[in-house]
Design brief:
The structure is a single chain. The chain is mainly alpha-helical. It is 45% helix and 8% strand. A hairpin with a 2-residue loop joins strand 6 (308-309) and strand 7 (312-313). The longest helix has 21 residues, at 22-42. The radius of gyration is 23 Å and the shape is globular. The two termini are 26 Å apart.
Length: 334
């Protein structure tokens, strides 16, 4: 995807490309001009075609060299991870695991589908348009089966249980993804499972919806939906890079440092205030939107809820779950 000068910058700052990362591109262009000068100095009789060919090789060589700011990923590889559609990603294989019982999202989706299938393909929504209380209770009762259950929290602030859908973020997230994915829809006060989805579920089971739901979570779902942060950074652009790094070392603090190094322009959209630095704000966003309400909802990792000890930030370490390794296999060599 080619960015125009007035397009929104890919880094998520909300600024136009010409006023953001275009400056970095300008530096790269300056390096190319230096290469031209060097080549013409050494070979003053080069034709224009010969010069263009030599430059193309230079640019290709540079783009295929591991970049230290990208933790050894090349610019060519990074461009694919940032801009390629879900089904065209390279240097990673995304599989549907045979066993999805450890994934809260997929277990909740199965409950929704089973409830509809038991009633000829649909069930009644609440007056607010939410999932019925019966289904919410069933979803809450699954909590002990998930790895995240080892962290005890008050149910009123628990992401994985609640008295209704409004107080049960992971279930609400699942329902929204199912709608985005075109698996279910609400009409006339009822939730319906699409006819095609019913046939798929009956023939292939819950696994058939794993990749469509995952793609919806990455490409179409607004990661800021469930939080109240006033500043907006679209972390979805960097999801695969972040996933690769957190799988490598498990440290949220190290992940934040690596993101700031690879994409320093992100901090421009997070101005510091009297309470938090731009770096701290980015850390909160990554911890909340990427770790807790993406990876943890899916069952890919778990992370302890404690953030502070004696008023000091706690180093947050994720526990990578088998489901993540069964789903994503990276072939990046650094």
């Amino acid at each position: 995807m080619k960015l125009g000068r007035n397009d929104p910058c890919h880094c998520g700052s909300g600024k136009k490309f010409k006023r953001c990362c275009m400056s970095r591109v300008s530096k790269q262009h300056a390096q190319v001009f230096d290469d031209v000068d060097a080549m013409l100095t050494m070979n003053p009789n080069l034709s224009l075609d010969e010069l263009n060919t030599a430059l193309q090789h230079k640019v290709q060589d540079r783009n295929n060299q591991p970049h230290p700011d990208f933790c050894g990923v090349t610019p060519t590889q990074m461009a694919n991870w940032l801009y390629a559609p879900f089904d065209e990603l390279q240097w990673v294989t995304i599989r549907t695991p045979d066993d999805l019982s450890s994934s809260p999202v997929m277990r909740y989706l199965a409950l929704i589908l089973d409830e509809a299938m038991a009633q000829e393909g649909s069930f009644k929504a609440t007056s607010k348009g939410n999932l019925p209380t019966k289904l919410v209770k069933q979803a809450s009762e699954l909590l002990p089966e998930f790895a995240v259950a080892q962290f005890s929290q008050n149910i009123s602030i628990n992401e994985f249980a609640g008295s209704n859908e409004d107080k049960f973020n992971a279930l609400h997230y699942t329902r929204v993804l199912a709608e985005i994915s075109g698996i279910i829809y609400r009409r006339s006060g009822r939730y319906h499972v699409k006819k095609s989805a019913q046939k798929q579920y009956q023939a292939l089971g819950i696994q058939v919806f794993f990749k469509p739901m995952l793609e919806a979570a990455i490409s179409n779902y607004n990661w800021g939906y469930l939080d109240g942060f006033e500043y907006e950074v679209d972390l979805r652009t960097f999801w695969l890079f972040m996933l690769w790094r957190i799988q490598s070392h498990n440290s949220v603090d190290q992940l934040v440092e690596e993101v700031m190094t690879a994409f320093p322009d992100l901090l421009q959209s997070l101005p510091p205030d009297d309470y938090f630095s731009a770096e701290r704000k980015l850390s909160v966003l990554i911890g909340s939107r990427f770790i807790e309400r993406f990876l943890q909802f899916w069952g890919f990792v778990i992370i302890g809820p404690r953030r502070y000890l004696n008023a000091e930030p706690v180093a947050r370490i994720v526990q990578v779950q088998p489901l993540l390794k069964h789903t994503f296999q990276f072939t990046i060599k650094t």
